[in-house]
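re: that chain from earlier
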Amino acid sequence: MVTSKTGKKQPAQENSTNPAGKFLKIETKWLVLLAIGVGTFMSALDGSIVNAILPVITDYFNTGVANIEWVVTVYLLVVSGLLLSVGRLGDLRGNKKTYIMGFFIFVLGSVSAGFSPSAAYLIGSRGLQAIGSAMLFANAPAILTKIFPASQRGQALGLQGTMTYLGLTTGPFLGGWLADHLSWHYVFFINVPIVLFAIWLSLKVIPNDTPEKGGEPFDMAGA
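^ sequence. v structure.
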């Protein structure tokens, strides 16, 4: 409540600088942390969720273990190989824009993996998933450090790290449960509603950021 010049009390107006002012009665930065946490959790989850269903996929495609292991390996290789490059892309094009684009690529790879007609197609789809995952992993800390003050950055980054390990530990159990009660395809389809929610939330609460000035191009050869 605020007091007018006439002495009457009037309802205080919502802070127009808060993009979540009419969204939820929670500070914006914690909603941003939720959006980042969902992306971090899903990226880590898909790094381990297929471990428990490799025998199922091997039998389904009637292929060898040496071939099907690439379903796990290609994901880890692509994520680790692209982290620096997509992090720099976020600096040049905007961390929010790159982060949300990562969600779109990730969900596209998830749908493609769920409908895979062959082991080779599944491995390629996992590579596509990993590109989106790398964009999420690399830009998430940059967004948090811009949103949270120095006194709370350790707390925010620590909670993000917790979501990483939660995803890694949940993956094998969830993958086995889905394959047992539904089918291995749902190991990838389950990402779709969660990622769509994360995209909506990220668009709603993550503030737009200004890319680095100077018009420096992305160093494709260096990447």
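The radius of gyration is 21 Å.
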